[in-house]
Specification:
The complex is a heterodimer of chains A (about 425) and B (about 700). Chain A is about 25% helix and about 20% strand. With about 425 residues, chain A is an alpha+beta fold. The model of chain A has no long low-confidence stretch (mean pLDDT about 90). Chain B has about 700 residues and is an alpha+beta fold. In chain B, about 60% of the residues lie in helices and about 10% in strands. In chain B, the strands form 3 sheets. In chain B, strands 4, 6, 7, 9, 10 and 11 form a 6-stranded mixed beta sheet that branches. In chain B, a hairpin with a 2-residue loop joins strand 9 and strand 10. In chain B, helix 12 runs antiparallel to helix 18. Classes of the chains: A alpha+beta (about 425), B alpha+beta (about 700). At the A-B interface, helix 1 and strand 4 of A face helix 8, strand 7, strand 8, helix 19 and helix 20 of B.
Chain lengths: ~425, ~700
């Protein structure tokens, strides 16, 4: 077989062009994926139930969080013994395991009512469901002999100046954060969990939330129309701020995290009557792009040192108080995993709507309370009314088929 | 439209395989013609057909493995395997298209040589030759069809298309063999080859998409175009385009570029290969009886795989030479066994596959002959033309699964968890009861759901009489308390009247009929204003709650006399009709009372729905626990025989509920629900909720089948 020089050259050129194109497509694709991760949330069909950490905090993280959530506070009913509490934790684990994994519900036999509501059809989809269980300060009272095992920073949620607390929406022995790709999946999960735990656990409050898609791009907006969560930590940065590793904490609690839930009504009608200038000054960001007032794009970093008097970004702007971006305040940052809520209308005909603020951190004092104290009397307080929620401790994850929630707490090693 | 690509694949691949068979058969016939002239040994064409059968088995086993194995995989791995197989299939098909172009005309001579050689060794060898020649086509067809079905996203239409194509190919081959038609195979393979290249491009794009989904390739988010929001995927023109090309309305840049590049490279190559062999391909296709003398002797060597296959065939041929039966068994059994083993070894996605059984006028699930332990679903088809009930019972006649009402000409799934032992179907169709053949269920030991001994109305008659006696006694007390209410109201003593009303209301709760279960007469005594146009002022609002409303809304005790007189009459009516079907006459309603009395307490009392001002929800709920206790007492023997731990559990939970209710009292007085602290309310709600979950088992355990 003879090959002419011309054929050889042509072949080489075609080979080079093909290689270049393939490489280009692969590199371009990888770059688009990386970029897309920061822009468009991509939810998965399921998240692993077992692991050293509970799911629903960093798996998936705020940028890729499921579009729907229910947050609820529960009480362990009076007269429940410690062994009943253990049974409750085992039941919660079994239900969460089944619901987040999906599959066929158990055969209840010929006499019993159906094992499942069939709201999600005969074969349960996991549908990106995560169930995150938290323990409230009140669980560590003398009922179960747990008072000496309480996480160091766990207290009932403080009432901050400007709060409008409503006892019907506050606290709880337990919290559940349930997130999924569709609202019917949340309904099904909450209903199933209640059905199996009625005798020992009763709800105090519950609020459903939803996450907006990027409008039109970048971080989703809250109901005040501003992109919310732009500066959320991610990756190793987030891990280092969220998971408790303080040796002073009880051993069972290490690898867990503190959860802050704040149910915050937004007075959107009032807000809509405020000039754009004032709105942007209160947040410190452009409303359309999400860029800091001293920048051009959403992810530009505000430079407060260049603007010490607040000429461009007011010194009492929300983003500036919340995260002053100084070395000293760096470890005060926390992970927000918030949702919007809608709850009909109030007696005045205004929308009962707002923000389910959910934050995770390794130290309630150093992080949430420090930031919240700085935010006291910020200009934004006129338009928001925190009325519910609570502090909870998220115990570490379920490590094996026989493990259950808070086992290390209730069965000390 | 999803059927078109597969129709084409089926036709084309089927024709290829069919041609090989045709050529082999013709070669056998020719060899025999030669043998009869020279007086040599005749060879039978049977081994060729055996080879065909083996090839079909091979393809079927491969298809089964593909389907079951990928179904059992998690979705991400499914995408990875599917994607890799798609890309592989595209490579295979592309190679085949070119190979067919090049070697179609030399195939006859090559295969004829193989047949002659194999025939000389023995029938087994001939089978192997046929198997190898056709098996390759079969595997290729299976893989390509499977990937095309995946790309199409639906199963039925593509498979129907493939079946149609294969059938057409068989018919065409038959006609060709009989020389009934002449087909320019060169042109045929040319045209279909081009269409196959287009389909293959679509499969390639789909496969790459799968690999991106599995994160084996980057760029899932780098989208070239996404028309999903702009076009209706169900519109006819979209289904024509996507059906014919296997393209999707949303494609990534990688997919789109791969599609364009594949076509841009392969189509010109294909066309160029066509012009160089134009002369050869336009010659008439080789038909069995037209010997192709013009084929060069070394043409067989041009087929790349043939050269490699010959020595291997030689060794196997010698082994298989005379053992026809063995070979026959082997070609059929081995692929099936391999497929079976692979499928069994996989995590059991198909293990809980449904078992189809039918009910006819003369048979009750005759298809069910053997069973395995564990949870399984029967797909029951009713062809009896009648309505009825289908039961699956264990050896002692207890029901383990049932379809309580099954209409004629319907199919209903029935899930059962079976343990070791004997089970049989019973079909209770209107007028006749048929029994299926008992089936011995084998397998590993398995925890089962409780089997339930059937209950008859007669079983419940005794307990219901006891309940009637109890209710009659409660109604007598009620009549007595209403009389006292009448006296105190007449005396204008409001405080005493309130006390008397509560006593009467609690009597009524203890009857166990508060949830509208005593018909119109019961409503007159215990009804609510809801549903009445005038609400509490409606003249049809009568009875205990109407009197409560008056007592707590400033009406004078004296003004209630008319209402109390009316109540006296209504209570008498209820007492008179107690054993009538509207009230407590039907024994089959008794098991419902076991949970409905307290379901009603939750629905009406604890919600505040029926409170007409007294705030006595907890008092009423407590009375309901007493009524429930009585109903349970009379049902205990029947319940315990079916679920031994039910009554003890209920007893404990009922006690917990009563305790939770009693602690809400202050100074011996019942308190309104909304004046109690949350923990006290949660304790009641929790105790009641847990009890109701347990009680929900009672009606099912004592359910008397409806008469069909």
């Amino acid at each position: 077989m003879t090959v002419s020089r011309r054929d050889l050259l042509r072949g080489a050129a075609a080979g080079a062009a093909g290689t270049a194109m393939t490489g280009g497509v692969l590199i371009g694709g990888a770059r688009a994926d990386a970029q897309g991760a920061a822009v468009a949330p991509v939810t998965a069909d399921s998240y692993p139930f077992q692991g050293p950490r509970q799911a629903g905090i960093l798996t998936p993280g705020p940028a890729d969080k499921q579009p729907f959530a229910t947050v609820a506070g529960y009480d362990v009913i009076e007269g429940t013994s410690r062994s009943d509490l253990v049974d409750l934790m085992k039941t919660l684990t079994a239900r969460a395991r089944l619901l987040t994994t999906g599959g066929a519900p158990a055969d209840p036999g010929v006499s019993a009512p159906p094992a499942d509501s069939d709201v999600l059809g005969p074969h349960l989809p996991a549908d990106g469901l995560t169930v995150t269980l938290g323990l409230g300060a009140s669980l560590f009272d003398d009922r179960f002999g747990l008072s000496r095992d309480k996480p160091l920073r766990l207290t009932p949620m403080r009432v901050f100046p400007n709060d409008s607390p409503d006892p019907a929406w506050l606290h709880g022995d337990l919290s559940l954060q349930v997130c999924a790709n569709h609202p019917d999946t949340l309904h099904h999960a909450i209903r199933d969990i209640a059905r199996h735990t009625r005798g020992t656990m009763q709800p105090r409050w519950r609020l459903d939330g939803y996450n907006s898609p990027p409008r039109p791009s970048g971080t989703p907006r809250n109901l005040l129309g501003f992109k919310d969560g732009t500066a959320n930590p991610s990756g190793a940065d987030a891990s280092n701020l969220v998971w408790v590793d303080d040796p002073a904490e009880p051993a069972w609690a290490r690898g867990g995290t503190y959860q802050v839930v704040r149910l915050i009504r937004m007075l959107v009608e009032f807000w809509d009557r405020v000039s754009l200038d004032e709105q942007e000054g209160m947040f410190g960001r452009r409303r359309d792009s999400g860029a800091p007032l001293d920048g051009n794009a959403e992810f530009d970093i505000p430079d407060y040192r260049a603007d010490p008097t607040g000429n461009v970004i007011p010194v009492d702007a929300h983003i500036r108080l919340a995260n002053p971006r100084t070395p000293r305040t760096d470890d005060q940052r926390l992970l927000r995993r918030s949702y919007n809520y809608d709850l009909g209308v109030d007696a005045n005909g205004n929308l009962r709507t707002g923000h389910i603020f959910v934050a995770y951190q390794q130290d309630l004092h150093r992080q949430f309370e420090t930031i919240q104290t700085r935010l006291v009397d910020e200009p934004l307080v006129d338009y928001v009314q925190p009325f519910g929620g609570g502090y909870f401790y998220i115990p570490p994850g379920i490590t094996g088929p026989s493990d259950w929630y808070a086992r290390a707490l209730l069965v000390p090693q | 439209m999803e059927a078109v690509p597969n129709l084409l694949i089926g036709l084309r691949e089927g024709l290829e395989a069919g041609l090989v068979v045709t050529i082999l058969l013709a070669a056998v016939r020719q060899a025999n013609a030669g043998a009869s002239v020279s007086g040599g040994r005749r060879i039978s064409p049977a081994p060729v057909w055996l080879g065909v059968l083996g090839a079909v088995m091979l393809a079927a086993s491969f298809a089964a493995i593909l389907t079951y194995s990928t179904d059992a995989l998690p979705s991400r791995l499914q995408a990875a395997v599917g994607g890799l197989l798609s890309v592989f299939a595209v490579g295979l098909v592309t190679g085949m298209v070119f190979w067919m172009r090049r070697t179609a005309r030399t195939l006859t001579a090559h295969l004829r040589g193989e047949v002659a050689r194999a025939a000389a060794i023995g029938a087994g060898a001939l089978t192997l030759t046929a198997l190898l020649a056709i098996g390759r086509e079969g595997l290729e067809t299976t893989l390509f069809l499977w990937t095309a079905v995946r790309a199409a996203g639906s199963t039925l239409a593509p498979l129907a298309g493939a079946g149609l194509g294969l059938a057409a190919a068989v018919v065409l081959c038959l006609l060709l063999y009989r020389q009934a038609v002449r087909l320019n195979l060169g042109t045929f393979f040319n045209r279909t080859g081009l269409a196959l290249v287009v389909i293959a491009a679509g499969v390639l794009a789909y496969g790459l998409g799968d690999l991106q989904e599995a994160s084996l390739l980057p760029g899932q988010r780098w989208v070239a175009f996404d028309l999903t929001g702009h076009v209706d995927p169900n519109s006819w023109w979209v289904s024509i385009i996507s059906g014919a090309t296997e393209l999707a309305p949303r494609m990534t840049v990688l997919q789109a570029l791969a599609w364009v590049t594949y076509l841009a490279v392969v189509i010109p190559m294909f066309l160029r290969a066509g012009t160089t062999t134009e002369r050869a391909t336009t010659t008439p296709a080789p038909t069995p009886t037209s010997p192709s003398q013009e084929v060069p002797a070394d043409a067989a060597a041009a087929r790349p795989d043939a050269a490699g296959a010959v020595p291997a065939v030689g060794r196997w041929e010698r082994m298989a030479s005379a053992r026809t039966t063995g070979v026959a068994a082997a070609v059929i059994v081995i692929p099936a066994a391999v497929a079976g083993l692979v499928i069994i070894a996989l995590p059991s996605a198909g293990a809980s596959a449904t078992i189809a059984v039918t009910v006819t006028s003369s048979g009750c699930a005759p298809e069910w002959r053997s069973g395995h332990t564990g949870t399984q679903t029967f797909e029951v088809v009713n062809r009896s033309g009648k309505a009825g009930e289908i039961n699956l019972t264990d050896a002692s006649g207890r029901v383990v699964a049932e379809i309580e009402t099954m209409g004629p000409a319907t199919t209903v799934p029935m899930t059962a968890t079976l343990g070791l032992g004997q089970y049989s179907f019973a079909c209770l169709m209107s007028g006749a009861t048929l029994h299926g053949t008992p089936v011995e269920v084998a397998g590993e030991h398995q925890a089962t759901t409780p089997a339930v001994e059937p209950v008859t109305a007669a079983d419940l008659t005794g307990p219901n009489r006891s309940y009637q006696a109890y209710a009659a006694q409660q109604l007598a007390t009620l009549a007595h308390d209403v009389a006292r209410l009448r006296t105190d109201a007449a005396a204008g003593d409001l405080a005493a009247a309130k006390r008397d009303w509560l006593a009467a209301q609690l009597d009524w709760e203890r009857v166990g009929a508060s949830y509208s279960s005593f018909g119109a007469a019961g409503e007159a005594v215990g009804g609510l204003p809801d549903g009445l146009p005038g609400g509490a002022d409606d003249p049809d609002f009568t009875g205990l709650h109407r009197i409560e409303y008056g007592l707590y809304h400033g009406e004078s005790a004296a003004s209630l006399r008319g209402m109390i007189d009316r109540l006296t009459t209504d209570v008498a009516t209820v007492r008179a009709n107690l054993t009538g079907d509207d009230e407590a006459g039907d024994p089959t309603n008794l098991p419902l009372r076991a949970h409905e009395i307290l379901e009603d307490a939750q629905r009406d009392h604890l919600s505040g729905l029926d409170d007409q001002g007294s705030g006595m929800a907890y008092a009423l709920t407590y009375a309901d626990t007493q009524a429930t206790r009585t109903v349970l007492d009379v049902l205990t023997p029947l319940l315990t025989a079916r679920m031994p731990n039910l009554v003890p559990t209920v007893t404990e939970q009922l006690g917990a509920l009563q305790a939770a209710l009693l602690v809400t009292r202050a100074g011996g007085q019942w308190q309104p629900v909304d004046q109690l602290p949350l923990p006290a309310r949660q304790r009641v709600n929790g105790a009641l909720g847990a009890l109701l979950e347990t009680l929900s088992n009672a009606p099912g355990l004592l359910d008397v089948p409806a008469q069909h």
